[in-house]
């Protein structure tokens, strides 16, 4: 067998890893889109480290775009196999990929119009279209957690809840070799945190022979507890009550938005939320919230108990879900205190960029960062507390307060990753591969794993291929 790293290699996005079995059968783990530095986007997203037509099956860990975002292109370029995932991931992927396709189409149209102004008539094609996104869904097959299923005669797969977002899973492959021996290969996907709002805690994988592990927060420890509702309340009070300003929250449409709304619903139910309007300005988030309500099998005990008295944990009287562009634009001319939650979470696309543009130069406002932001994104720049940022061609002074709540991060920190892997006997793991992390973070995760007995730890570069005994 051999394992090739085709994305999320020494970076955080574009997850994609290709396993080739002894008999030539190929299994692709994730098929994500690269997000980050714009000058690197097109080259990665347009090209493959393999021939899509020769991939036999795709297994997906969860529905974030950096893990599923190139699936329509994979199918368009010749992949004809099944796409295996959990039930919730399949439902979320349907709306996530359509939204992504719409963005690809709009970006291509915008680029063509820009070129026309320069006198260039070159046609620019989107990475894929909405038709491509709809078509690829025909190849999805979904499964429950904690059940083995076959993707080939000699390969079984099991999903275990990774606690990252709704439907997220670690992936364990049980491979029967030609000599009858069994090899277990595990891919963590993205691992979440314990005691987070809404979803269940991460579940460890079976004992493995080979491990592919995320390393997003290597060397880091989250200071805040998951879902620190008091910290959120203090920021809202200081901004909206004391300063009469707005709290602008870039948030992923799937996962983070629902967690924040659930926390605000708690505050409202307990009479603690200031009497201000709250807006969720993301059509994708609206659709994703509907899917959340369909999959209470993924909910933890806390929210299920809460729903006994509040059947709708994602809605209250002063909460408005915004769909129309005109309604979104109207928020930018309102000067009354409010909370605006909008996508994308890294502020690299979507309506949130307009809200930041219109509010960042007002010292009464707060930009609240609530999750990981890949290097090169606007969100990452804001995390560094800059004096100015450039947005829509204009240099803006950062007068609004920049606040960060890493406790709402969907990724396990280093200690939590060690906890997740603590059931493994490191002596039985022949090789460990660290993916989905910036190189400095991965080095620190490598040292931490070595400290608890792991050996033969590799940090692959894009395109690296490793033999598996």
Task: From the structure above, extract its key features.
globular; 7-stranded mixed β-sheet; Metallo-beta-lactamase, Chain A; Rossmann fold; 31% helix; 22 strands; 14 helices; 2 domains; 469 residues; single chain; alpha/beta
Question: Helix and strand layout, with pairings?
Answer:
Elements: E1 2-7, E2 16-20, E3 26-29, H1 38-46, E4 57-59, H2 65-68, H3 71-76, E5 82-86, H4 87-117, H5 130-136, E6 140-143, E7 149-152, E8 155-161, E9 169-176, E10 182-187, E11 210-214, H6 229-242, E12 246-250, H7 256-269, E13 278-281, H8 283-294, H9 301-309, E14 319-322, H10 325-331, E15 338-342, H11 352-359, E16 366-369, H12 378-383, E17 388-391, E18 394-397, E19 401-404, H13 414-420, E20 431-435, H14 439-451, E21 457-458, E22 465-467
Parallel strand pairs: 3-4, 4-5, 5-6, 10-11, 11-20, 12-15, 12-16, 13-14, 13-15, 16-19, 20-21
Antiparallel strand pairs: 1-2, 1-22, 2-3, 7-8, 8-9, 9-10, 17-18
């Amino acid at each position: 067998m051999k394992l090739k790293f085709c994305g999320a290699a020494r970076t955080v996005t574009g997850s994609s890893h290709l396993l080739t079995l002894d008999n030539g059968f190929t299994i692709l783990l994730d098929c994500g889109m690269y997000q980050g530095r714009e000058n690197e986007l097109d080259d990665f997203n347009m090209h493959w480290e393999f021939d899509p037509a020769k991939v036999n099956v795709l297994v997906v860990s969860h529905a974030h775009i950096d893990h599923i975002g190139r699936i329509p292109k994979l199918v368009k370029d010749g992949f004809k196999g099944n796409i295996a995932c959990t039930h919730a991931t399949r439902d979320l992927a349907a709306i996530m990929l359509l939204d992504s396709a719409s963005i690809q189409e709009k970006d291509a149209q915008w680029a063509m119009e820009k070129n026309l102004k320069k006198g260039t008539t070159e046609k620019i094609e989107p990475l894929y279209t909405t038709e491509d996104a709809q078509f690829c869904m025909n190849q999805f097959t979904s499964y429950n957690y904690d059940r083995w299923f076959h993707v080939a005669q000699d390969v079984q797969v099991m999903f275990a809840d990774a606690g990252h977002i709704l439907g997220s899973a670690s992936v364990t492959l049980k491979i029967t070799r030609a000599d009858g021996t069994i090899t277990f290969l595990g891919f963590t996907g993205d691992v979440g945190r314990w005691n987070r709002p809404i979803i269940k805690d991460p579940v460890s994988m079976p004992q493995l022979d080979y491990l592919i592990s995320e390393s997003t927060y290597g060397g880091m420890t989250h200071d805040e507890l998951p879902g620190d509702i008091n910290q959120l309340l203090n920021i809202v009070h200081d901004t909206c009550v004391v300063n009469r300003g707005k709290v602008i929250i870039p948030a992923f449409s799937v996962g983070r938005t629902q967690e924040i709304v659930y926390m605000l619903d708690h505050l409202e139910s307990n009479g603690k939320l200031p009497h201000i309007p709250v807006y969720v300005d993301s059509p994708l988030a609206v659709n994703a919230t509907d899917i959340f309500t369909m999959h209470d099998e993924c909910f933890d005990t806390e929210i299920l108990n809460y729903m006994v008295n509040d059947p709708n944990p994602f809605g209250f009287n002063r909460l408005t879900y915004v769909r129309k562009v005109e309604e979104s634009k109207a928020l930018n001319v309102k000067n009354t205190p409010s909370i605006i939650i909008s996508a994308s979470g890294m502020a690299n696309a979507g309506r949130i960029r307009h809200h930041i543009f219109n509010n960042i130069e007002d010292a009464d406002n707060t930009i609240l960062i609530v999750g990981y932001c890949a290097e090169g994104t606007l969100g990452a720049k804001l995390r560094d507390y800059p004096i100015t940022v450039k947005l829509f061609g204009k240099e803006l002074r950062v007068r609004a307060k920049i606040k960060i709540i890493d406790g709402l991060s969907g990724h396990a920190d280093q200690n939590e990753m060690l906890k997740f892997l603590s059931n493994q006997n490191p002596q039985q793991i022949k090789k460990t591969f660290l993916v989905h992390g910036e190189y400095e973070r991965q080095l620190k995760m490598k040292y931490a794993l070595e400290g608890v007995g792991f050996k033969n730890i590799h940090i692959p570069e894009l395109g690296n291929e490793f033999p598996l005994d």
